[in-house]
Amino acid sequence: MLDKTGIAKRIAKEVKDGYYVNLGIGIPTLVANYVREDIDVEFQSENGVLGMGPFPFEGDEDPDIINAGKQTITTLPGASFFDSSMSFSMIRGQHVDLTILGAMEVAENGDIANWKIPGRMVKGMGGAMDLVASAENIIVAMMHTNKRGESKLLKQCSLPLTGVGCVKKIVTNLAVLEVTPQGFKLLERAPDVSVEDIKAATEGHLIVEGDIPEMDV
Amino acid sequence: MINKKVANVAEALHGVEDDMTFMFGGFGLSGIPENAISQLVKLGVKGLTCISNNAGVDDFGLGLLLQQRQIKKMISSYVGENDEFERQMLSGELDVELIPQGTLAERCRAAQAGFPAIYTPAGFGTEVAEGKETREFDGKMHVLEYAFKADFAFVKAWKGDEAGNLIFKGTARNFNPNMCGAAKITVAEVEELLPVGALDPNHIHIPGIFVKRIFKGETYEKRIEQRTVRPRP
């Protein structure tokens, strides 16, 4: 079974040379730490920066340079700043190659819910609805089950949706899955996790074809 | 040169009244019009509708207006990090409309650019699209979203000149350029206000035509919301 770092490491393998990538808050943010160093990748943050670098050294923090999580950041050579409208032109116009974000629930048809739990404080969707509505390549990073042990891979989302039929791939602490017209297709198992474990933790339709290899993380 | 300079924040906010709709630039606490917000607290105008990506924190940014119960309605994409906001929202004192961030930016830009409305795929099939017109383009569904109508836009830039030309810094740019000229009156506050001719026309982000009044902000706290650092090697 993977921890959050393991999920980030596995997703980092999906990041290819020449990609512009938008990372959501939480596990997705960790992905940047594990991308191969021999490829060229630029990270976009929807508040208006392309070419995000690591956190600043202590004392170098600049309140005018933050990411979408409102954290102080740095920029790398070749970086650019832009306004919010242009930022979402990159996203809506499908110029960003890969979007990685977290989720509370994903349905077998690719619906995603990650912004609202009715009856609780609602913080808002931020840029998530724009991202999922337009991105061609969306990977969800999440735990396979919630804190109560219930599956987050469902036949149908029970929470208010963020987007419809948009998720293509999911990496959890147990598995890598592809969303297909027939349901969740199991691609890989996490180390020391059996197909039976994954079946038991998946409420939506799970497709298992042949031998399922163990993830390389 | 058409001079947009006003002497101070009091003059810059001349004409604000109760029940108006205001736009505020900024993302989190970065690039917010700190001086205009302080002046609105001082003026005590109430019943405000505020269009802003976020709602500040308890004791800074738009949180200051919330503390004084000056805001009737917030139109935002993300409003976490604010206990007073949560209390007013849950008690029903505050009306909140949450909309996707890109839609927020484009509804500002539409107002600036003279488009009555735009179609966006964001939010289709979700509760954000409920009751709204939808339309298919090239096999994909879109939602009709209207341009905002606002009385004042309060923006913050890094440098400006007396003609109202603006230059922003870093990610403090965010919604500020999109709100310039998107309201009846755009008020820009800047850290450095320069005479005309001091800024290279090649470097201007927002031409002065979109700005009605410009003033030099007295102070900038520039509070950091999440201070994240790495140790020096």
Topology:
The complex is a heterodimer of chains A (217) and B (233).
Chain A: H1 4-12, E1 20-23, H2 27-31, E2 42-45, E3 49-52, E4 75-81, H3 84-92, E5 98-101, E6 105-107, E7 112-113, H4 128-134, E8 138-141, E9 153-154, E10 169-171, E11 175-180, E12 183-189, H5 195-200, E13 206-207
Parallel strand pairs in A: 1-2, 1-5, 5-8, 6-9, 8-10, 12-13
Antiparallel strand pairs in A: 2-3, 3-4, 6-7, 10-11, 11-12
Chain B: H1 9-12, E1 21-24, H2 34-43, E2 48-51, H3 63-67, E3 71-76, H4 83-90, E4 95-98, H5 101-113, E5 117-120, E6 134-137, E7 140-146, E8 152-161, E9 166-167, H6 176-179, E10 185-194, E11 213-216
Parallel strand pairs in B: 1-2, 1-8, 2-3, 3-4, 8-10, 10-11
Antiparallel strand pairs in B: 5-7, 6-7, 8-9
What's the CATH architecture name of the domain at 9-101 and 148-216 in chain B? 3-Layer(aba) Sandwich
**Residues in β-strands, percent of chain B:** 25-35%
Query: Rg of chain B from C-alpha positions?
Result: 18 Å
Strand order of the main beta sheet of chain A, please? 4-3-2-1-5-8-10-11-12-13
Gross geometry of chain B: globular
Derived from helix and strand composition plus strand pairing, the structural class of chain B reads alpha/beta
- The structural class of chain A is alpha/beta
Q: Summarize the biggest pleated sheet of chain B.
A: 8 strands, mixed
What does the overall shape of chain A look like?
globular
Largest sheet of chain A: 10 strands, mixed
Q: Return the CATH class of the domain at 9-101 and 148-216 in chain B.
A: Alpha Beta
Q: Any low-confidence stretches of chain A, pLDDT <50, length ≥5? A: none
Radius of gyration of chain A, taken over Cα atoms and rounded to an integer in Å: 17 Å
Largest interface: A-B, 52 and 58 residues
What fold name stands as the CATH topology of the domain at 9-101 and 148-216 in chain B? Glutaconate Coenzyme A-transferase
Share of helix of chain A, binned: 10-25%
